[in-house]
């Protein structure tokens, strides 16, 4: 009986530590997303060259999408393999469609 109580206590402590670490990652990710947004607004307000600003904003947006998926939508957690597979399949199909249209237009 004492072993079961000890195992349960150890499991509870493990879960607490795991949740604490996950919350820390989410707060850090949220802060990074705010910083990326401020950087993007700052570059636009500073009226930098469009040839520089647009690619940087696209990269920052892609990073934020990754943060949203992995940290806020929990796509990296166990048990989310099928939704992740479906999502990446959709992204791949969209990429192929856009690529085909670009090739057809420019060919």
Question: Could you characterize what this model shows?
Answer:
With 107 residues, the chain is mainly α. The chain has 2 domains: 2-76; 78-107. The protein has 3 helices and no strands. The model has no long low-confidence stretch (mean pLDDT 87).
Secondary-structure topology with pairs:
Elements: H1 2-45, H2 50-72, H3 81-106
Helix pairs in contact: 1-2
Q: Estimate the helix proportion, in percent.
A: over 70%
**Gyration radius, to the nearest Å?**
21 Å
Separation, N- and C-terminal Cα atoms: 75 Å
Alpha-beta content class? mainly alpha
Average predicted local confidence, pLDDT: 87
Counted up, domains total 2
Oligomer: single chain
DSSP, total strands:
0
Order of helices and strands: HHH
> Would you identify the regions where 5 or more consecutive residues have pLDDT less than 50?
none
Major sheet summary line: none
* Strand residue content: under 5%
Shape: flat
Count of helical stretches: 3
Organism: Gracilibacillus dipsosauri
Membrane topology: Multi-pass membrane protein
Protein name: Cytochrome c oxidase subunit IVB
Transmembrane segments: 27-46, 52-73, 85-106
């Amino acid at each position: 009986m004492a072993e079961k109580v000890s195992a349960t206590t150890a499991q509870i402590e493990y879960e607490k530590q795991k949740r604490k670490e996950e919350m820390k990652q989410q707060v850090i990710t949220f802060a990074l997303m705010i910083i990326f947004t401020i950087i993007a607004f700052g570059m636009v307000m500073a009226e930098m060259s469009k040839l520089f600003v647009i690619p940087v904003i696209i990269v920052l947006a892609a990073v934020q999408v990754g943060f949203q998926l992995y940290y806020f939508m929990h796509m990296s957690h166990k048990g989310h393999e099928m939704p992740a597979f479906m999502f990446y399949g959709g992204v791949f199909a969209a990429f192929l469609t856009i690529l085909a249209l670009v090739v057809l237009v420019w060919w």
